[in-house]
Design goal:
heterodimer; A: 9 helices; 79% helix; elongated; B: alpha/beta; Rossmann fold; Alpha-Beta Plaits; six-stranded mixed beta sheet; four-stranded antiparallel beta sheet; transmembrane helix (chain A); MetI-like (chain A)
Chain lengths: 221, 382
């Protein structure tokens, strides 16, 4: 048995792991849900796109860049009123999901857009020549052709979310990172800090391997 | 010859002087393009005229080739036929209907009747061969059962029935292009557009794909419009050809006529690449020098028609008292018609050589003087 792992600490560990998982999964789900249409919109309205429109593309791009360039810890505090509006409260794991989702939506939208840009323009042209509508091109050509890139983007986002979620302690979001700071750093328990880091490393490794395996499975090239 | 003079004439007006016998009446034309213009804004505000007043008629059932160097505008032109590219002005009549007047839904419907094959195949890598071929049917809302029948039918046409479950990455270039053709044919179009369909393939596969396109034209009564930068492709399968340069059609006609009697210098250069004679300078250097008072001239003689079998060389030699040295010669076929091509060195008095070339021309042979590298060097030295 591990001597310092008291029943209380053990319970805290389990709770923190569940909080981290909740925040990462919740934020990633929302990010994919909103990021995919945003990325398609960005891609389609881009110059030479299916529905070229600078009036949509430029403000949208600016907004996404603004969210992405705001340091997460500041973003989290800055949007407290919005968080309260959405989650009903500004503290706790649920509330932490709101800024995490916002930051990762902007992040994943750019990554998805890049994945769409990698799709051969000739394939899109061929689909147009075959009489496909723009929506058909988005869902039947762009999304399936970009799928390996989209999955890779989700993997990268999940990994960054694990890192961001450590900052959620600032708004009482809990999680493994918070546990590491409170016990490992503030209570001088380096073994707790080390355990947290090891668990996070294993967690990220697992995510990355799963993502890579999925990419290999869907890639037909 | 620029055809822009025909301007925006109404469709029935014949607009080209070339090969009147073969020029189809506009009423029969599967594709009739009138005075197409398209420019692209270039760097520094300089606009490039990709299409500068192009008019063309493609008759139903023919294989029509458009040949030109890259940047000549042929790619823009073929994209105007299904309006992947919209011309700034002009008319695009396909199967008797003006496509520029159609709204989005009607245009998509017409596009399904115009198959298109691409240089880089443009297959969906995430779909199997069968699902690629089924794609145009799927977007048109054809029910699954019907789709499967048509996919099988289209794959059988191109000889790939056994590859239905494969992914494009598992196929060779030639097989990928066969899938591309099957996909274009699945909606049973009347027209097939080929955008440099063989340019990414090796010579042997190119021959296979060209033979396939020709066979499908005969079998399905298709009208084929193809663009290429290779005169060899035109020579192989086209009935008629248009040569493009700087956004204009500079020559149009039956392939045999254009090959045997090219009128525009650009066309001549194109043909020289394919069937022309290249006389190595080393060979010329080894030719004997002309005797005093005589001259040496290099000639290229093209034999076509009734006199191609006559013993003209020895006859000319006797008649005009000159020596004709055959440097090279070959027999070839264009669009199924035979012709001969010969490179000669003529030695004799200048007047006699002139008389000989005149007599050759009388017989219906095409004589083209070839620059004598040795003579040029001498002239430069003098």
């Amino acid at each position: 048995m591990i001597p310092w792992l008291t029943p209380m600490l053990e319970q805290l560990f389990v709770e923190a792991a569940i909080e981290t998982l909740t925040m990462v999964a919740g934020a990633a789900f929302i990010a994919i849900l909103f990021g995919l249409p945003l990325a398609l919109l960005l891609h389609a309205t881009d110059r030479g796109g299916l529905a070229q429109n600078g009036l949509v593309n430029r403000p949208l791009g600016l907004l996404i860049n603004a969210v992405r360039s705001t340091p997460f810890i500041i973003l989290m505090v800055a949007i407290v009123p919005f968080t309260r509006l959405v989650a009903g409260t500004s503290i706790g794991t649920g509330a932490a999901i709101v800024p995490l989702a916002l930051a990762s939506t902007a992040f994943i939208a750019r990554l998805f857009e890049t994945a769409f840009r990698e799709v051969d323009r000739g394939v899109v042209e061929a689909a147009r020549a075959m009489g496909a509508t723009r929506l058909q091109i988005l869902w039947k050509v762009l999304v399936p052709e970009a799928l390996p890139g989209l999955i890779a983007a989700v993997t990268v986002t999940l990994v960054s979310l694990v890192g961001y979620s450590a900052m959620a302690g600032a708004v009482g979001g809990g999680g493994l990172g918070d546990l590491g700071i409170r016990f490992g750093y503030q209570r001088f328990m380096p073994e707790v800090m080390a355990s947290v880091v090891i668990v996070l490393i294993l967690f990220v490794q697992g995510l990355q391997s799963l993502g890579d395996w999925l990419v290999r499975r869907v890639r037909r090239r | 010859m620029p055809v822009s003079a025909a301007a925006s004439a109404s469709p029935p007006a014949p607009h080209e002087a070339a090969a009147p016998a073969a020029a189809p009446a506009a009423a029969l034309a599967a594709i009739a393009l009138r005075d197409l213009r398209r420019h692209f804004a270039g760097r520094g505000g300089v606009a490039t005229k990709a299409l500068d007043g192009v008019s063309l008629d493609v008759a139903a059932g023919e294989i029509f080739g458009i040949v030109g160097r890259s940047g000549a505008g042929k790619s823009t032109l073929i994209r105007c036929v299904n309006l992947l590219e919209r011309p700034d002005s002009g008319e695009v009549r396909v199967l008797g209907e003006e496509l520029l007047d159609l709204d989005g839904a009607a245009l998509r419907d017409r596009r399904r009747r115009i198959g298109m094959v691409f240089q880089h195949f443009n297959l969906l890598s995430s779909r199997t061969v069968a699902d690629n071929v089924g794609f145009p049917l799927e977007v048109a809302g054809v029910p699954r059962a019907e789709r499967e029948t048509r996919i099988r039918e289209a794959l059988a046409l191109v000889g790939l029935a056994d590859k239905a479950g494969a992914y494009p990455a598992q196929l060779s270039g030639g097989q990928k292009q066969r899938v591309g053709i099957a996909r274009a044919l699945a909606p049973r179009p009347r027209i097939l557009l080929c955008d440099e369909a063989t340019s990414a393939l090796d010579p042997e596969t190119t021959q296979e794909i060209l033979a396939l396109i020709k066979r499908l034209r005969d079998q399905l009564d298709l009208t084929v419009l193809l663009i290429t930068h290779e005169m060899a492709v035109v020579k192989e399968i086209c009935d008629r050809v248009a040569v493009m340069e700087r956004g204009q059609v500079i020559e149009t006609g039956r392939v045999f006529d254009v090959f045997t009697q090219p009128r525009h210098p650009t066309t001549r250069r194109f043909i020289a690449d394919t069937i022309g004679h290249f006389i190595p300078p080393g060979t010329v250097a080894r030719l004997p020098a002309p005797r005093p008072g005589e001259e040496r001239r290099l000639l290229q003689v093209l034999f076509a028609g009734p006199n191609s079998t006559r013993a003209v060389i020895s006859e000319a030699s006797r008649r005009f008292a000159l020596d004709l040295d055959i440097i090279s010669g070959r027999i070839d076929e264009i669009a199924g018609e035979p012709f001969g091509l010969m490179a000669l060195a003529a030695y004799g008095a200048p007047a006699q050589i002139d008389a000989t070339t005149a007599w050759f021309a009388e017989l219906g042979l095409t004589v083209t003087p070839v620059a004598d590298p040795a003579a040029q060097t001498k002239a430069e030295a003098a």
